[in-house]
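Section handout 9: paired folding examples.
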Amino acid sequence: MCSSKVITYSCPGIYVIGQYEENDVVGYASFSVLNYRLTVIKGLDKSTKVYGSVPEVFAGKLVEKACIELASREKIIEGATLIDLALLNWFYGGYIVSAIVNNRLDVIDIEIVNPGVKIAIAESSSSTIPPKLSLSQWIILGYIFRTANWDLLISFCRNNGFARGKTWCIIPGWRNTYMIIYEDSESLTNALEKISYINVYDIIVDNNGLRQVIKV
C-alpha cells in the first residue's frame, strides 16, 4: 500500500524512429507519445503502485521501469541506456535528435511537432528495421515536423527510399512498426493500403517537457 503522502508521476510512451552514426558518435531520432501513458504513485515509504499501461510498440515495460526509476535519480540522464533515452524525451519534449557523448546521452536538436502533421504508428505483421540515416537527414525531418512542409517531406522520403504519396510517407520503425506521417484521413487510408499491419495507433507527440510529476 502507498502511504497517504505520495508523489504521482505520469509517464508517456516513447517511440524511436531510427538512428545515425557519424564522426564516431551514435544517436537516435525519437519522441514521447502524449496519448499513451501510465501513472506511478510513489509513497514516501518508497512503495509504488502502477496504474494503466502503455502498448509495447511504445516500450510499455521500459516506460514503467523508467517511470519508477525517475523518482530515485539525482540526475535525469545518467548514461546511454534506453531508460536514459526515455527520460531525455520526457525532460525536453518534442522531436529529439540525441547523441551518445562520453557514454551519456545528450541533445543535438529539438523541434516542436506541428499539429498539422499527423502521425500514426502501424504495428506490422512482419519484422521492420529502423532506418540508419545521416545526422543531417534526421535534422531535416525535425524541420519538416515543425513546419509541416509536405513538399520537403516527400523529397525526404524519396531520397531515403521510403514509400510515399502526395501527402503521406511511411518510415519503418522499431518494434516491428511503421511510422506514417500524413495530412488527413484519406492520406492515412492510402498509406495503410501499402503495408501489412495488425493494429494502428493514432498518436500525439508530447511537445511539453517537465510534466511528469503531476501531484504531491
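Moving on to protein 2 of 2.
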Amino acid sequence: MAHVLLFGFVVPLTAVLCGVLLWRRRADARARQRAGLRDDPLVVDPYHLAHGTAWPRDDVQAAAAQLVRDGLVRVNHRGTLILTPAGRDPARTAGHPLPDGLLKALRSRTAGAPLGALLLYDAEYAEVRRAFHAAWQARLEARRPPEPRQIGCLGVCGMVGVFVLMTVEMLAFFDRILTEPLVAVVLAAVFAGQFAWVAQYRDEPEPVPHWSERPLHPALAALDRETYGYLFSSRQRIRRTRNRGRPRSRRASAQP
C-alpha cells in the first residue's frame, strides 16, 4: 500500500507541481521582458540613494554639502547658508538639479538663510526635489515585473497536506531508505521538488539597497567635522535669528 501511495500519488503530484513551477518561471521571465528589464545594471544617482535616509545624511544635506564643496556657498557657525561671490554669479551652476535648485533658492533671497527654512518655506525648491525623485520612482516602477499570482488559501492547505503525507511516507519507508536505493532517490527527488515549489514564494529583491545599507553621499563624506556640524544645525533652524532665537532689543532714538 505504501508503494502504491508513493508511486501512484505523491510522485505524480510532485511532477505536476514542478511542471507548474517551470511554467510560472517562464511566465515571469516573459513578464520581465515585456516590462523592459534586462541584465544591465541600474545606474543609480547618489542623490536618489540619499533620498529617504535619515535627514542628517539625506539628499537635501548632500545638495548643501555639494554647494559648500564647490565654493558657491559657505555656512557659518550659526548654520546660515551664505552665497559666496562665485555663488552670486548667475553663470555658475552646480551641474545637478538638486544643488542647482538649492542655489536658486538662495539667490532669490536678499540674505542668507538656514537650510531648514529653505526646505520648509521655498515651494519652488520643494517642487524641483519632488519632480527629480518622481522621475526616478517612475523608472523603478517600470523595471518591476507584474506581481505573480499566488496559490491562495486552498493551495496552501494542499501544500500542507502534501508535506504531512510526505512526512508519513518518510517514516513508513525509513527502514527501506538504506536497503532500497530507488526509494531513497524517489523520496529525495520528491522533497527537492516540493521545497523548490515553496521557495518560489519570496519577496523580489529591490533594485536599490535598504536605506540603512546605503553609503554616505560623496559630498557629505568629503566634509570636515566642523562643516558637517554646521550643516547639521542649519537643517534644524527654520528662522534666521541671532542670539539663540532671542529677539534683538531695539532702542528708540531719543528725541531732543
